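To assess whether the prediction recovers the assembly geometry, we first specified each molecular entity separately, as shown.
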Amino acid sequence: MSRRRWGTFALHTGLIAGAVLTLAPLFWMVAASFMRPGEANQLPPPLWSADPTLDNYRQLFTRLDMLRNLANSAVVTVLATVLSVMVTSLAGYAFAKLPFRGRERLFKALASALVVPAQVGMLPLFLLLRELGLVNTYAGVLVPYVASIFGIFLIRQYALGVSDELLDAARIEGAGEFAIFRLVALPIIKPILVTLAAFTFLNAWNDFMWPLIVLSDSSMYTLPVALANLVGEHVQDTELMMAGSLLTILPALIVFLIFQRTYVEGIMAGGVKG
Amino acid sequence: MSSTLERRKARAAWIFLAPAMILIAVFFVIPVVAGLLLSLTDFDLYAISDPGNARFVGLDNYAHMLTNATFWSALGNTLKFVVIGGPLSLAVSLGAALLVNARLVRLRGLFRTIYFAPVVTTLVSVAIVWRYLYHPRYGLLNWGLGLAGIEPVDWLGDPRWAMPAIILLAVWKNFGYNMLIFVAGLQMIPRELYEAAAIDGAGSVRRFLHITLPGLAPTFLFVSVTTMIGYFQLFAEPYVMTQGGPLGATRSVVLFMYEEGFRWWRMGAASSVAVLLLLITLAGTLVQLRWVRRET
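The predicted structure of the complete assembly is given in tokenized form:
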């Protein structure tokens, strides 16, 4: 073999080894979720069930009532995504295309807020929501996801590319500012809205600490909180816990695979621009 | 442009910004400021039922924290996670980016997607999965090591191994994110530089050291600062896998804050932990910015 072909071979061996290592934990989770109780705890570890079963999933939905948690996660995440896209796109567009006094200063102030860990505000936020009667409600969970500074940056960066002539032409024709935003700008910035929606969905779906703090009834728990709670009493039930883990991961993974291209481009753009 | 038009735009801007700014002010800025104030009080369980029970105590919470062995151990654990886990995760990200971005790769998109998949998984779920992978007797990891003739390790039960185990999980979960950013950075380096170097007879190692690494410098700054900020907030992994044990070896600063604030309801003390975390994160960010500025 030529040197070049050796290089290609070594490269792909490395890539495949990496892919196997990356997927192994996820594959094992899928495999174990279809096993009978105790089957995963054998030596050597079985790679697939000798007698696959859906019983673990049946238990999740009947005895453990996780359909309820799935619904909680879905409601919180969908509401957070819709509200966030509405609120953030308006703000991002204003920063990009509507000059006003103090715009740069306000923008810089928001940027510096990005280094503040969310935990600093979490304790007072909890007390505030308690006063407002929002602890243990959907509204309480989704509050932090709705207005994201990162999202405003993302939209602004993209909206800078909308041509001013186009907006001015609409103004000359007598369109109001909101109509211009909705009819002229929004169709142009639609790709970045999809990116933002995917980001918000995955953040809200996967988040753990805040829902853990703000939700107190197990009937209100989102999936990650319910799962973390469950592992306490069911730590011996490996197969059942793997079914629960897969149930929690699957919606996120599906959303990612659907919006993969725009999601990946969003991350890459954010990183290069800094 | 007429000033009426400018006024009209400015008015529209404020109306468009209002929902976002009000939400950020009420649910982020005010709580952060309140957090600073809360850290100066003895706000506890009694104050939750009647805030009038909270008293201003100055810097007492901070003074107590700085003599609290649990706080120092949590800070030490977190620093271990940041200082070892962060660079390790960046190294894996860079390696993966170089592999995925190599010119001869087929199915580039497929590999990129596979490496990225752990990033979008739910942290709680994969922490549970890895808890079983780390099982001393039946876990996949010890079984694999056994094939190589290595004695089983009690990953999550041994105070020496618990933090390395959490670091390994975090690297697996996160490397795909920075990989993408490195790939974006690699694509910004002009092809011609490599071609010119090849004509000059520079080998692949020298091309890597003299073109790739300097070309990635801005990317490095971005990923190392964002990764560090994120790693300082370690929480769900120890919460799910070890509850901070064994012997407190994986209790992180945020886990400690959570326990103080939401288990024992010592919210004044917990706020001081959060503020200390903020100060440490800021210091870490400044050190990195300083360091980069000196290099260039």
